[in-house]
Each structure stands twice: as C-alpha cells, then as structure tokens.
Amino acid sequence: MSFDDSCREPEQAFHLNRDPMAQLEYPTKIARFSNVNHLSVHISRNFGTESTRVYYIGLRGEYSQAHRHEVTICNYEASANPADCKVDSIIPQTNVIS
C-alpha cells in the first residue's frame, strides 16, 4: 500500500522550510496524535533536487508500553452462509451442463 492508495486526508500536513542547522520545530495538533501506535511520514517534495535525504526526525511525547490485544470476539464458520452476504449488484446466473 502506498500513500496514493489511501483515500484519507492526512491527519496533519507540514510545509517544510530549508533548515540546514536543524533548528526548526513543527508543532503538531496534540488531539490528533494522542495514543499513536503507528506513524507514516510522506515527503512529497524536496526543493527541486533529484533525491531526498532525511537525517533526523525527532518525536516528542510520553512513552507508554504497547498493548497487544488478543482477539476477543470471533465467529468461525465451517461453510459460508450466502444469506449473510447480501449484495444487490450481483446478478445470479444459472448454467446448465448437459
């Protein structure tokens, strides 16, 4: 999956400035990034050069142990029940073999 495959808008987008001394900080929307377990970063432009180098991305926050939740509610079927999956766009067809 790539960022082009995603139908969602980003939680927050930053317009980066040149920062050769690595002194710029970009504030995040705290409400959007509380309890983050996975973070993906997409850098779409690189000031007109052919390649992009990222030397450092620093994150601030409080560390908390990741919790792995087991499957708590699960239904297993020995065979699929077509009545459970009603789809109006499928046209039933009957083939006769003689």
Automatic annotation (TrEMBL):
PANTHER family: AD039 HT014 THIOREDOXIN FAMILY TRP26, PITH DOMAIN-CONTAINING PROTEIN 1. One of its GO terms (cellular component) is cytoplasm. Residues 1-79 form the PITH domain. Belongs to the PITHD1 family. This is PITH (C-terminal proteasome-interacting domain of thioredoxin-like) domain containing 1. It comes from the Eukaryota.
